[in-house]
Amino acid sequence: METRKLLHRVGARCFSDAWLGLQCGAWVWLVTSMLAAQTYADTSRGINAYQAGDYETAFREFMPSARLGDKVAQFSLGVLYHYGRGVQRNYDEARRWYQLAADQGYSRAQVNLGVMSGEGEGGPRDYVEALKWFSIAAANGDEQGRQARDALESRLTPEQVAEGRRRALEWRPRN
Fold first, then answer.
1. Residue 54 carries which DSSP code?
2. Are residues 102 and 174 in the same domain?
3. For the chain, what is the total number of helices (H) and then of strands (E)?
4. pTM as predicted
5. Using H for helix, E for strand and C for coil, what is the string for 67-130?
6. Is the domain of 46 the same as that of 101?
7. Are 62 and 97 found together in one domain?
8. What is the DSSP code (8-state) at residue 125?
9. What average pLDDT values come out for the chain (175 residues) when binned by 10 residues?
10. Phi, psi at residue 12, to the nearest 5°?
11. How far apart are CA 110 and CA 116, in angstroms?
12. Among 50, 30, 31, which residue's Cα sits nearest to residue 42?
């Protein structure tokens, strides 16, 4: 049974009884902690494989963690798809995985979404959307995002800059 479904079933039963709820709360915390530790281990093995140039192993290690919502693993899958390392290049998949990580506030994924938007990779070229993502990354303290934002703003019209800034201000993380 999928872990999330199991936790939901156990949680629903646990919280119908206060005494049982206390015991189950500890159990759910333990299982959640174990899943987080496993996710970290998978992501760490993926990073090691990537750094060694073993992109196929990196892909296999990142996938389970990414599916569980690990933003570093999601970003890393985006990189693999974006550059065709260990998998066939697929801008749509790259954008999808970057988006999941960016939605959790991961600035490196936000920068890469800006790059893809500005280059027209996985969609139409959209400098205003690129500015949005660079601005969000910059607001999260990402130096590369700040530099890209500043460089792009100097090439856009005041109306485009205003629209990119408006989009960035309206954006909210989904974690």
1. -
2. yes
3. 9, 0
4. 0.77
5. HCCCHHHHHHHHHHHHHCCCCCCCHHHHHHHHHHHHCCCCHHHHHHHHHHHHHCCCCCCCHHHH
6. no
7. no
8. -
9. 44 46 42 46 83 93 93 96 97 97 96 97 96 97 97 97 97 82
10. -65, -40
11. 10
12. 50
